Amino acid sequence: MQTMRAMLLDAPHTSLHLANLPLPAAGPGQVLLKVRACGVCHTDLHILDGELAEPKLPLVLGHQIVGTVVQSGPGAGRFRTGDRVGVPWLGATDGTCRYCLRGQENLCEDPTFTGYHVDGGFAEYSLADERFCFPLPEAYSDVEAAPLLCAGLIGYRTYRLAGDNLETLGIYGFGAAAHIIAQVAKHAGKKVYAFTRPGDAAAQEFALRQGVDWAGDSTQTPPEKLDAALVFAPVGPLVVAALKATHKGGVVVCGGIHMSDIPAFPYSLLWEERVIRSVANLTRKDGEEFLALAPQVPVRTDVKVFPLEQAGEALEQLRNGQFTGAAVVKLE
Ligand SMILES: [Zn+2]
Ligand SMILES: [Zn+2]
Asked: pLDDT tens digit string along 130-165?
């Protein structure tokens, strides 16, 4: 039996460990990918910490997969052997629920999430439903492309849901998604204000290098009011801070899948038509739009590369804010 190396999660609150798993074979509609790189995401940490409660176990995490097609299963003909594709968090949908039928496949009632319901990309090989894979822009190397697939796609959906009619944009939490979306917003002529963990000078310098107009602590008031704010850090009190910083009619969009509780706040902060909303997952349309836009900006991803065996270490460094930009696991 052929095997592959993978970093395996046996149960929440345990460490990833290296394992030899049977090499999977592509089933109907699937492609088998030789993984070249896989991005590391905050959602992986939420799964590791048991905050997302329904993972397949044991599990291979990782949902920003850049891989090469090595096998197409029965009925799969979209890609050729050797094609490079990307696999995002939305691994499949039922295609039949009310949300799928309304063009809201991101809200599907019976979705399959990559690296959660099925094994993901912290492994030498991975299976994917070919309908949910994306061709990737050639301008990006494997490790540069990986963060586009969640930080980029979901960041882009978060940004888009802030609306078109904005001049000043705040970004709370300046990690992988923020560093990509700051570039997109600057390209569109917005003024961008970046908020980091208090005292995180490295993240603030990093934000300024991405072209933002101002960077400060999340406890600070920005020099001018915001038309919209994107909250990427999973920290509920930031929603209130962001509301306080917005103009009348301002929009606060929460981009994460999990967040600590939002504290009670006076209605006056929400009044005057301010809006709080969340973003869930992505649609394939988001992916197609964003992957066409990224090379035009052009978005540059700042990546810290880890070998497969250090996927768990990459997650802990993400938790502790020990690097700027995005972490990516690179396969040999
Ligand atoms: Zn993600
Ligand atoms: Zn559905």
From this structure: 999 999 999 999 999 999 999 999 999 999 999 988
Distance 274 CA to ligand 1 centre (A): 27
Kindly write down the DSSP assignment for every residue of 221-240, as one continuous string: PPSS-EEEEEE-SS-THHHH
Ligand 2 center to 52 CA (angstroms): 20
The burial of 265, by beta-carbon neighbours within 10 Å (0-12 exposed, 13-18 middle, 19 or more buried), is given as: middle
Of 180, 120, 150, nearest to 257 by C-alpha is 150
What spacing in Å lies between the alpha carbon of 43 and ligand 2's midpoint? 21
Ligand having the closest approach to the CA of 45:
1
Residue for token pair 């997650």 = 315
262 CA → ligand 2 middle, Å: 29
Q: Between the CA atoms of 285, 287, 290 and 295, what dihedral angle is there, to the nearest 10 degrees?
A: -130
pTM confidence score: 0.95
Q: In angstroms, what is the span from residue 112 Cα to ligand 1's centroid?
A: 14
